[in-house]
Amino acid sequence: MKEKRSGPMPKIPRSSDNDYTHDMSRTRREFIARETGTQLNHLGHYSIPPETLSGNIENFAGVAQVPIGFAGPMLVNGEHAKGEFYVPMATTEGTLTASYSRGMRLTREAGGITTTVIDDAMQRAPMFAFSDAREALAFGRWVEQNFETIKQASDSTTSVGKLRDIEQYAASKLRWLRFNFTCGDAAGQNMVSKATKAGCEWIQANYPRPIEHFVLAANLDTDKKHSHLNSLHTRGKRVVAEITLPKQLMTDIMHCPPEALFKQRQYSNMGALMAGSVNNGAHFANGITAMFIACGQDVANVAESSAGFTYAEIMPNGDYYFSVTIPSLIVATYGGGTGLATQNECLSVLGCTERGSVNKFAEIVAATVLCGDLSLGSAVVADEWVSSHERLGRNR
């Protein structure tokens, strides 16, 4: 890095005519190299057409290349995802793809993973302030009485989003309205912001009494951060993946009988409880993040999407029932980064580029998470965890 100069640093070059070209990306790389003394020899190698990136990035200068591998095949018996899938995973963590593939082999030989999307909602939660709590309560009742008209105002901003309901939360003289929308194949954060704003403008124009203050968002959403509210009430898709594994199959493939894995599950539940964790599973975030990067999802949504619950039982015949529940899985198959070249290819591998495929993608993600947690949990019990990382994860 070059020594610090006196005076202000120069601005990054931009073009007011067309900022998304190979020439402008090269100009910016040369500028950064000149200003920092670092040669950008790899950032400029990419196949994505720059003209497709408007709305996805500003000051485009190149790409970060993350290795992608495929795990699988994984057999899913979902309502939307049916059949076998090769799962794209973008990661720099050795052993990850191999571990997920091992879990996929086990579940495939057991007959496949059952997946169910049990809820769907994306939120924006505006806050209204009043002179006292009684005024806030009266406002809440008025909102309930006028829901249908508020819904009409909100839904008028989008052909896809639909206002499902409005939850209400109160503290002091403040009242939060949690607008819940369905958003089609989009993740929907921007969509619901616009729609909620329209609904709130109607409220402000028509509520007959004074409103002291209004703000479109005041952290109850909770956008790109975990909350127990989202775990209870859903943000994005609420998905369950579950399977019953034959005892002998677990022993043969995972070197781990159900009794040992169930015992470890109880220890892990206690450890998660003591730590105040938002997840009692092994590593939901690994599979979710790897798929999000590969498939053009908003990776910051891993903050919410990686929260979750695992549940297990030993069946009367000795088989092992195991499930994962992801209460706030925020995914899309339309919009955002899903249309970019490499990301769209990965979605296409999964058959998730057609209209109406977002629940299919959600089920595939949940099934992948289940495979990863089974594999890691078994590796810990069978004392294969450290040795596998030493064998596959060393690049020193």
TrEMBL record:
InterPro entries (UniProt xref): HMG_CoA_Rdtase, HMG_CoA_Rdtase_cat_sf, HMG_CoA_Rdtase_eu_arc, HMG_CoA_Rdtase_NAD(P)-bd_sf, HMG_CoA_Rdtase_sub-bd_dom_sf
Gene3D superfamilies: 3-hydroxy-3-methylglutaryl-coenzyme A Reductase, Chain A, domain 2, Hydroxymethylglutaryl-CoA reductase, class I/II, NAD/NADP-binding domain
CDD domains (alphabetical): HMG-CoA_reductase_classI
Enzyme Commission (EC) number: 1.1.1.34
GO BP of this protein: coenzyme A metabolic process; isoprenoid biosynthetic process
Alphabetical keyword list: NADP, Oxidoreductase
Keyword Metal-binding: no
Extent of Basic and acidic residues compositional bias: 14-23
Region of interest called Disordered, as start-end residue ranges on this chain: 1-23
MF (Gene Ontology): hydroxymethylglutaryl-CoA reductase (NADPH) activity
Protein family: Belongs to the HMG-CoA reductase family.
PANTHER family xrefs: 3-HYDROXY-3-METHYLGLUTARYL-COENZYME A REDUCTASE
Full protein name: hydroxymethylglutaryl-CoA reductase (NADPH)
